[in-house]
Amino acid sequence: MKMRRWITRFVVAGTALGAAAGPAFGERGSDGDLKILYWQAVSIMNPYLSSGTKDMHAASMVIEPLARFDETGNIVPTLVSEIPSLENGGISEDLTTITWRILPDLRWSDGTDFTAEDVVFTWQYCTAPDGGCAQRSQFTDVAAVEAVDPLTVRVTFSVPKPYPFGPFVGMSSPIIQKAQFESCVGARAPECTEANFGPHGTGPFKVRELRANDVVLFDANQYYRDPAKPAFATATLKGGGDATSAARAVLESGEFDYGWNLMIEPEVLATMEQAGRGTLVSSFGSLVERIVINWTNPDPALGSLRSTREGGEHPFLSDPAVRRALSMAIDRDLLVDIGFGEAGQATCNIVPAPEINRSTGNDDWCLTADIEGANALLDEAGWVPGPDGIRAKDGVRLSMLYQTSTNSVRQSMQAIIKDMWSAIGVDAELRDVSSSVFFGGDPGSPDTFQKFFADVEMYANNFDGTDAESYLAEWTCALIPSPETGWRGQNIPRYCNPEYDALVAKLGETAEEQPRAEIVKQLNDMLTADGAHIPLVHRGDLSGHVNTLAGVRMNSWDSQLWNVADWYRTE
Questions:
Q1: Would residue 552 count as lying in a domain?
Q2: 467-520: per-residue pLDDT in tens?
Q3: Which H or E run includes 508?
Q4: Residues 6+ away with beta carbon under 8 Å from 110
Q5: Domain contains 131
Q6: pTM of the model as a whole
Q7: pLDDT tens-place string over residues 154-166
Q8: Residue 459 belongs to what domain range?
Q9: Does any domain span residue 133?
Q10: Best CA proximity match to 483, nearest among 457, 534, 444
């Protein structure tokens, strides 16, 4: 019975989101143009070919999953009549199948019928050999997806799956149209520019034009399932600039209706909000600012083997003592103070929430800066300071390239961390890359975070919903990016530990809530203790909107644009 209650806890019965109750809407498109500002510009509208949050958020306005997570972390129906459960027969008693019942009369934005075959195809697309699907972990342990009839889909798992809501739930796993993408499977996936830039969808908007790394222009989808929505006839999602200019454009000038990820100094934001034009909205989910450690060798001399496991291990970050010392030297509380204020908390966890998953397993050595202890650790490991103060061993110097995306808070953090590392004899060359490029996922660019042509890099990431299983599966050996996958894959540090992989598999087979939480903590602790990454700050999501924009429900468990169909103008 405990397992049954745990599965039911994630389910909210009801109708599809598009038909949810809310304020009375007038005629579709009566509120003109919705202006959204994402200072990290959109590069592609296909989230299966990008891990960038800005790309997935933009795509969520057009292509939708069967169900998504609301602002409380509960699963709510989107393209289905109800959420499957043990009680309604949607989840089999042996936990190996989940059956979804699609709403009738759904249409794609090109006017054709949405059917179960589109759902089946989406699975085939993401799991195709050589496809390099960026969201492959969403389909862990899926053995088959079949169309029982045009409006019924059954997902079969190779093992009992106590939490079967990875596939087709949340912004990371939306449905794409078979007719549009069926010639774009496998190695051909990145070649289909027209489809990747302008996918047909079931969402409230459709793409009129994508100018990569600049702007996306949308029109209201005339086939959207609620005839009164969206309230806006068009939407403009502008990219570029920086977080400061984005905050100013919403909070001070009101030039834009919504500004995403206003990651700037807290005192600057407070001054802007006093202008009275806009409102800050925030919530805490699982977002963690972290430094990722490259376990492979990024030396340019390696050519095509650079930053691959085939190119060999990192010349000094392969030493556990170095990885541990880098983390011990960082004053996380100072980072919170200078960059986040009340919207940040120092952390040593990559899974900081919900509370049942929060571990304290690494806090004793990680949470409080210990320069003396870090130096002692490096001394013991044989890394000796040279005349310039930089440590070396066997001719290898602790000197590295530290990259991140361009942002004033991140550049301040880089400078502070560089000073902290210099106190333990580690040199860091700082580099920042345009956010649109860094998170863009272009396999031809040397500057993406997936390609990782640096020693360490810093960014923030989180997971959909409140269950961490699919997220933790991202660090399994099979998901390491490589040239063969077009550098797509979620295991950015190239961490590979068979014990970790086995524990992920065990999590997938564990039913009861508390034992699952204990395994989540073990996996979390393993990643931090082994040094796959250095968690820094558990961040709250912080955005802003003009006072005349209503309907915004800030969501840290899914896309911030998850309910854009419900947004409207008050005057």
A1: no
A2: 999 999 999 999 999 998 889 889 999 999 999 999 999 998 888 889 999 999
A3: helix 498-509
A4: 177, 180, 200
A5: no
A6: 0.79
A7: 999 999 998 999 9
A8: 284-540
A9: no
A10: 444
